[in-house]
Design goal:
With about 260 residues, this protein is an alpha/beta fold. It folds into 2 domains: about 180 residues, 3-Layer(bba) Sandwich (Glucose Oxidase, domain 1), CATH 3.50.30.40; about 35 residues, no CATH class. It is built from 7 helices and 14 strands. The strands form 3 sheets. Strands 1, 2, 3, 4, 6, 8, 10, 13 and 14 form a 9-stranded mixed β-sheet that branches. It has a 3-stranded parallel β-sheet with strand order 5-7-9. A two-stranded antiparallel sheet has the order 11-12. α3 packs parallel to α4 and α6 runs antiparallel to α7. About 5% of the residues have low confidence. Its cofactor is Mg(2+).
Length: about 260
């Protein structure tokens, strides 16, 4: 009787094994760092100031939740913007299965760009989660559904009349919070997310990976994870951090 080889895991299935921190480290090693004056650029792929709202990061499955998928982007504009285009369908209805929705919102908006009904629609369509450059509401509903939501914060206010969707699957630029931008204007910059970029998000934060770097990121993460596991064993057994790093990470840096 012939046996067939097991199918190889897809790049996304391989990538989801690694944390957002491991991926940022890999991107920095691969050279994805730039002068902030060249913005919009990515620094280690990190999308700043956006954190997990659902599941709860402190109870239940939040600490083990990680989403990974191709970016489906949504650009929001202010509700009184009469000139920006309007999509032909609701942006949730257009979201592809397996994607991660990435929603850009105008600066300083205090209303939510995502609510419980949108989670229901996205979950039915197989969307892996949503990353919002703004706020969400209906936290109880997202958490009850087990749907991953990452945002800058939450609000009691819905979209209308404050904002509205404008364009789907276009590049969106996500800026750091203004206070961070002012304090570190020479060291941090914006992230431009393109449709089809790979998004990974977990309790530590959100990272964006250009598709052309995916294979190299996976290889780098796999190697670094192995090294860090060796470091952890040595440190837990009493070896000094300095000696451990010199022994294991010195070889990594030369690789």
């Amino acid at each position: 009787m012939s046996t067939s080889a097991s199918p190889q895991p897809s790049p996304i299935e391989q990538l989801v094994q690694f944390s957002s921190c491991e991926i940022s480290d890999a991107l920095i090693k691969l050279g994805l760092t730039h002068n902030a004056k060249d913005a919009p650029v990515q620094r280690g792929g990190y999308i700043p100031d956006i954190n997990m709202l659902s599941p709860s990061p402190t109870v239940g499955d939040g600490q083990n939740t990680r989403i990974c998928g191709y970016a489906y982007t949504v650009k929001m504009v202010r509700g009184d913007d009469l000139h920006a285009p309007k999509p032909s369908q609701h942006f949730v209805d257009a979201a592809p299965a397996g994607s991660v929705a990435v929603i850009s919102v105008p600066p300083n908006v205090k209303s939510a760009a995502w609510g419980g009904l949108m989670t229901a629609g996205a979950q039915f369509r197989g969307v892996h989660g949503v990353v919002i450059d703004g706020r969400a509401r209906d936290l109880v509903e997202h958490r009850a559904a087990g749907f991953p939501v990452f945002a800058r914060g939450h609000s009691t206010l819905g979209q209308s009349p404050f904002t509205r969707p404008s364009e789907l699957n276009v590049p969106v630029t996500i800026l750091p919070r203004p206070d961070f931008e002012n304090a570190f204007e020479n060291t941090f910059s914006a992230v431009e997310v393109h449709p089809g970029d790979i998004i990974v998000a977990d309790i530590d934060g959100v990272v964006c990976i250009p598709p052309e770097l995916l294979a190299n990121v996976i290889d780098s993460c796999r190697y670094s994870k192995h090294v860090d596991e060796k470091c952890m064993i040595d440190i837990q057994q009493g070896r000094s951090v300095q000696e451990t790093f010199q022994h294991w990470r010195k070889a990594t840096n030369k690789k």
